Amino acid sequence: MTSLADQPDNVIEMTAAGVLPDLTGRWFETPSRAVSPAQWDRFEASIAEIFSAFGLDLQTPGTRETPKRFLKALYDITAGYDGDPKLATSFPAERGGTLEAAPSQVIEGPIDFNCLCEHHALPFFGTAFIGYIAGDQIIGISKLTRLVRLFARRFTVQERLGEQVADGLTALIEPRGVAVHLEAAHLCTHVRGVAEHSRTTTTVWRGEFADADLRREFLAEVRSLRR
After folding, report:
1. What rounded mean pLDDT belongs to the chain?
2. Alpha-carbon span 160 to 19, nearest angstrom
3. At 216, phi and psi to the nearest 5?
4. Which of 88, 114, 133, 220 could link 177 by a cystine bridge, Cβ 3.0 to 4.6 Å?
């Protein structure tokens, strides 16, 4: 099996250094975005003007509603800005989080995600793998998918997405360690510029994952879980 080190893709390893988002309080509960009917109409008209200027005939049965559909799709793709209150649920860890216990990893993946790159507003998409070593609390497995998609459904970059998932999980349950591994294809490189069909890998480590053995164990599980 090919190791991560042998892959030809771009590989970026993120650490705890740098400016982190504010994840204090109930950060996952944000006011829903409010777009008035007048704004929707204005946005739709602007999109129609752009599409028409770029060559799309908006007078066919298949294209008359395209600006409206595009606007609704863009709103849905960025739904992460509306938060997700269901992330509040956690449970006591079975072993009570005693430091004497050998580190035991919870690993989930692959979790599919889709994002819009903030540089070109073009999609990038891929899979996420999350590992954590529980402290006093554990989180429902489905909440890990919710956590990824909360931050993925925004305008973002892959490096930030991994950092936010790691710090979001840390804020929710204060685990002893967190690992986040993302693999994604970026349409901004596929369809423009260098037109290169590469994939980008980013990995984020927190807490006890400073231990090289735990990191190797996590990455070995990632390899085995790949579809």
Report:
1. 86
2. 10
3. -65, -40
4. 133
Q: How many angstroms separate the CA atoms of 154 and 121, rounded?
A: 10
Cα–Cα distance, 118 to 97 (Å, whole number): 39
User: Of 108, 196, 200, which is closest to residue 146 (Cα–Cα)?
Assistant: 108
Angstrom distance (rounded) from CA 137 to CA 115: 29
Nearest CA among 163, 155, 69, 148 for reference residue 111: 148
Contact 68, 96 (CB under 8 A): no
Describe the strand order of the beta sheet including 199-207 as a list of residue ranges: 10-14, 199-207, 177-186, 123-133, 105-117, 155-156
Burial of 60 (0-12, 13-18, 19+ CB in 10 A): exposed
Cis previous bond, 110, omega within 30? yes
Give the tens place of pLDDT for each residue, 113-123. 999 999 999 99
Kindly state the tokens that stand for 206. Answer: 């927190």
Contacts of 169 (CB under 8 A, 6+ apart): 130, 132, 139, 144, 147, 175, 178, 180
Per the CB < 8 A criterion, the answer to whether 190 and 200 are in contact is: no
Its pTM stands at 0.83
Q: pLDDT tens digits, residue range 93-112?
A: 876 445 565 678 999 999 99
Q: Dump strand ranges (E) for 58-176.
A: 91-92, 105-117, 123-133, 137-138, 155-156
Residue 183, strand partner residues: 127, 201
